[in-house]
Amino acid sequence: MALQHEEHSLHCSYTAEQPGCRSLTEKQQRKMSVHSKDILCIPSERILSAGKILRNAILSGAPHLIRDRKYHLKTYRQCCVGTELVDWQMQQSSCVHSRIQAVGMWQALLEEGVLNHVDQELSFQDKYVFYRFLEDELEDAPVLSEEECKESMEELPDTLLFLSQIGPDAHLRMILRKHPSERTADDLEIINEELLHIKALSHLSTTVKRELAGVLIFESHEKAGTVLFNQGEEGTSWYIVLKGSVNVVIYGKGVVCTLHEGDDFGKLALVNDAPRAASIVLREDNCHFLRVDKEDFNRILRVRLRVCFILCCCRYKIMSGTPEKILEHLLEMMRMDSHFTESDDFVLMHCVFIPNSQLCPVLIYHAEALQGSEQEKKDYTLNNKRRVIHLVMQWAAVHGESLQHEEVSLDFLEVSLLLKQLYKYLLIVCLSAVLFKVYCCDHTYTTIRVPVAASVREVIGAVGDKLGSVDDLLLVNLSSAGGESHSSYLIPLPEQEGPSTGTLATFELMSSKDVAYHMTSYDWELFHCVHELELISHTYGMQCVMKTTVNLDLFLRRFNEIQFWVITEMCLCSQLSKRVQLLKKFIKIAAHCKEYKNLNAFFAVIMGLSNPAVSRLAQTWEKLPSKFKKFYREFENLMDPSRNHRAYRLTVAKLEPPIIPFMPLLIKDMTFTHEGNKTFIDNLVNFEKMRMIANTVKIVRHCRSQPFSKLHTIISHQRKQHTDVLI
């Protein structure tokens, strides 16, 4: 069985030598000079285009902002002032809500050299400071044509929306580039908020993270293949990957693993005062890191990590092993007075690599002692039985009723009484009669009542009794994979045609808050019925654990129902004024769903409004009040998929349960983890993969850890029912 220590780490670096800093060797100075080149030599095409559009828009609407300026008897040609740029940007779009946000948007341009400080400083400041666009650096700057002016004004809203999405990251990098002594209280708060979501720091307390926020330094490297440090060198820093990935290389073995965003490295050498155990090489271009220098590391973390090293078995985690050895290790490490998450991961994921029929004998084996004196056997058996029982209790709690369908599990748990009750229950179900429709070729149907376990012959007989004849009756299961050759011959039934008129007349009588509440109440019932094992079965295939994933399928289908309901209502509304009212109502419903922490319905409504069938209704969107346009843009920003849906993940991390999460994203996370990692490596279970999938499942568990309180909401609605404005 392979174990891997958490030899990852946090990373910070000075971008330039500051007054009062300790003296550096020549090698370190050369290294820092490389790290200080934070402006990209060649800006990206998207940023270059954004800078050009902003410059043209300024020249078109406010040309006085770009002009020659004098300061201290020196003339700076074709410059803008930082405060004026921020003022202008806030006037152009409702998606810019604060001056801090605007600073981050301008910083994104400055980082790539599209906007430059006249003294080549790397931070954009909301002050009387001069900046110059890249095109104005040329002696013969191009003259703006009327056509370019018109195009820039048309593209300005989309450009500002794009910059508002990348601005927060640029603002964070700007703060991290500052010397720690220059950071304000607001700067430290922004850094600390980012640290809350870095997995390498998840085991540290809030106090430690706040201390780290004051010493972290930003470091970036442009080229893949750059060596951050070599095996055998003295450890001087602890690193965290903020963007990109690195390879861990060991002499004679080559690349042993790859670390990605959120991983850390370099910690073990500092804790043990030992040389670097491996070399770190950049795997891709434009990688960003955080760094903590050795002095700050020793002051803040070393004592804590040494204690953790002793008490937590050096924070070793199972990476791979045979199922039997993994179970043996978990039982040895289990402490009855603590929450041991590794055993929880095993219980949740064991069905992937060891079925219950094999697990039960192994658990019995570990509960018995085979060697030693009678007293030793007695003590060993007592301790091990306690651990096994603790694990079995976890196992039964997670798998629940699914264990009743396996004879091995029932024999192991010794619940023959439950087995008898199960048979009695199944007998009732099989004899129960149900009503269902049987369709004929002419699209008529007949309704029959037959037992659940009825055979085909019994169904045909019941239909024949209804129709008056049983001759030439054939029961057919008709299905289609959507191919044109089949779908062209299928005539939809009237109830399958869909509505021809909207429900606005009824819909406008209900308040947006009431609609959002009832949507959330129903969504919570569906979400609460989804079993954790259904997520695993959906990822690995239904044959793995649960025989069905019907609850999960219903909940996923609910997302599509809401999304297409929004699209249908908008497209069936023929009057422009009514359509504007309907658009406002859906935006308010989305806002209330977000208020109720129903993010699944929130995303469904917003994605419905973002559908091309709705977004192309130009006149409707033009007449939408600016207040609602602002709300809608905010909601769209929350849906931004960049950096693995970072905006959404940060929002969810701040919420307290109960929460209805955006389920398609959780499914995507599990699918990517499953398809991107092998389940078995060299005939050993890849337990790290099991842990990653289990962590995603635990997000669902956390979201449901508190009940959805309907009573409080109903009472508050009754108090306000006469004062709510129906929109």
UniProtKB/TrEMBL annotation:
Subcellular location: Cytoplasm; Membrane
Gene Ontology terms describing biological process: exocytosis; G protein-coupled receptor signaling pathway; Ras protein signal transduction; regulation of insulin secretion
Domain Cyclic nucleotide-binding stretches: 200-301
GO cellular component, one term: plasma membrane
Keywords for the protein's UniProt record, in alphabetical order: Cytoplasm, Exocytosis, Guanine-nucleotide releasing factor, Repeat
Main location: cytoplasm
A single GO molecular function term of this UniProt record: guanyl-nucleotide exchange factor activity
Span of domain N-terminal Ras-GEF: 314-443
Superkingdom of origin: Eukaryota
Keyword Iron-sulfur: no
Pfam families associated with the record: cNMP_binding, DEP, RasGEF, RasGEF_N
Location of the DEP domain: 66-135
Domain Ras-GEF: from-to ranges: 511-727
Signal peptide (residue range): none
Topology of the protein relative to the lipid bilayer: Peripheral membrane protein
Function per UniProt: Guanine nucleotide exchange factor (GEF) for RAP1A, RAP1B and RAP2A small GTPases that is activated by binding cAMP. Seems not to activate RAB3A. Involved in cAMP-dependent, PKA-independent exocytosis through interaction with RIMS2.
Record protein name field: Rap guanine nucleotide exchange factor 4
Top-level taxonomy: Eukaryota, Metazoa, Chordata, Craniata, Vertebrata
